[in-house]
Amino acid sequence: MGQVVMDRGAGNVTGSGPGANGHAATKIRSYAPATGELLGEVKVTSADEVKRAVERARRAQEAWGALPVEERCERVLRFRDAIVDRADEIVDLLVRECGKPRHEALLHEVMVAADLATFFAKAAPRVLAPHEVKLHMFKHRRSFIHYKPRGVVAVISPWNYPFQLPLRDAIIALLAGNAVVIKPSEVTPLIAQKAKEVWDSAGLPEDLLQIVPGYGPTGAALIEAQPDFVILTGSVATGRRVAAACGERLIPCVMELGGKAPLIACADADVERTARAIVFGGFSNAGQVCVSVERVYAHREVHDKLVDRVVELTKELRQGDPSAEFVDVGAIIFPHQIDVAEKHIADAVGKGASVRAGGKRREGPGQFFEPTVIDGCNHQMTVMTEEIFGPIVPFMRVSTEEEALRLANDSHLGLNAYVFSRDRDHATRLAERVEAGSVLVNDVLTNGGTPDTPFGGIKASGFGRAMGEEGLREMCNIKHVSVERVGMGSKDPLWYPYTAQSYGWFRKGLRALFSGGGLLQRIGEIL
């Protein structure tokens, strides 16, 4: 089997070997992006330790998977309760390690995780219950579908939502009867350690949920340890490598990758609501969201008013250290994204676009980039065609909604999209034509926090789904059990020997069953 190579990401390292690439580092140092303060250190997990972690998880899963689903749900709700009880300390760490506003740490991380656990603990007994499939032809048999745990689920998680995203996948996997091993991003290693601490404090099996901090080689070692299922949330480039590694080992996987969410503002869009949606959808978590509003196609009837209002609202945003004050926009978690933002802006301005708000790093300590609005954009500019993952919202004027739809679909990515119109029926019809895994009408971002519905992308945004009934069943092996309803005796007509007489019967049966609609169709219409 070939070696898995994964993106390293960011993070400062200590220890022996080439710390510049992190591959021989023994520790990860975590710094607060808003202040530069050293927050703590985490030991890098070696390949041997990863292998042993997966082995321990596999042993723990045997007992856990044998429990009734209702009992697993009760125990996961103890974890939920522990999260709620310790919400303040979790929020505080999220604010410091991610530099995100306190409101977003509470609402977008802690509350989403608590709600997801509650929803799926209630839904799992019904969704995972065996059910019978009514067979259309072999009426002498009965078929049942069972959902069985896969075994050990590996979760490879990103740095932008380091609490709720790994726990989203872990909780669903656990409820389905699996054990979980999480490889967190090296950019935000302390949050995962806190989640593990909360899990252990709830009195749950320690080996059932494990954390293996590290850089790319740690993630590679996790896949090489042969888990039974892999879930990655990350970049398209990393997704290609991880999916290839899983394919080589025949490990089923879900890839939740990048996004370039378009927002179509129709001619009759409510300017005030649309503008506020663009500002929130573009600058929440400093734009470090896979479903951020990353490009706006505004109809010429509303374009000027919409851009002007977005600029006004953007200039009202308060940006700063969220650990010191209540702010609207915090820091950039991964400093490389500042370089990415600057390159996009330089490319757009060089090709004729204009910066209407923001557009540069904020002076002073910390990793801050001003919320930025760019007008006069087109598809010759990278800001309209490549993922930004930062606080930039580019606008493009369109003459018709058909033009907006064509441009929205002109992308290699297809995770989320948004349509704004006062005519909900019209907007819904337009949304159905947008090529994306999810499309919201007159709203932004909220589907990331609705566990009732499946979440995932098409095109290069990945495959498979998290959340929803589909996401829960994705964590299972589907088993079909077929049982006789009527005994056929020792001489089944479908078995040997093959004779000319039996062939004639079956030939007549073919015509009777299927010719001109046939007997099966008529029976189906009656039933």
UniProtKB/TrEMBL annotation:
<dbReference type="InterPro" id="IPR016163">
    <property type="entry name" value="Ald_DH_C"/>
</dbReference>
<dbReference type="GO" id="GO:0006081">
    <property type="term" value="P:aldehyde metabolic process"/>
</dbReference>
<keyword id="KW-0560">Oxidoreductase</keyword>
<dbReference type="GO" id="GO:0016620">
    <property type="term" value="F:oxidoreductase activity, acting on the aldehyde or oxo group of donors, NAD or NADP as acceptor"/>
</dbReference>
<dbReference type="InterPro" id="IPR016162">
    <property type="entry name" value="Ald_DH_N"/>
</dbReference>
<dbReference type="InterPro" id="IPR016161">
    <property type="entry name" value="Ald_DH/histidinol_DH"/>
</dbReference>
<protein>
    <recommendedName>
        <fullName>Aldehyde dehydrogenase</fullName>
    </recommendedName>
</protein>
<feature type="active site">
    <location>
        <position position="290"/>
    </location>
</feature>
<feature type="domain" description="Aldehyde dehydrogenase">
    <location>
        <begin position="26"/>
        <end position="481"/>
    </location>
</feature>
<dbReference type="InterPro" id="IPR012394">
    <property type="entry name" value="Aldehyde_DH_NAD(P)"/>
</dbReference>
<dbReference type="InterPro" id="IPR015590">
    <property type="entry name" value="Aldehyde_DH_dom"/>
</dbReference>
<dbReference type="Pfam" id="PF00171">
    <property type="entry name" value="Aldedh"/>
</dbReference>
<dbReference type="InterPro" id="IPR029510">
    <property type="entry name" value="Ald_DH_CS_GLU"/>
</dbReference>
<feature type="active site">
    <location>
        <position position="256"/>
    </location>
</feature>
<comment type="similarity">
    <text>Belongs to the aldehyde dehydrogenase family.</text>
</comment>
<feature type="region of interest" description="Disordered">
    <location>
        <begin position="1"/>
        <end position="24"/>
    </location>
</feature>
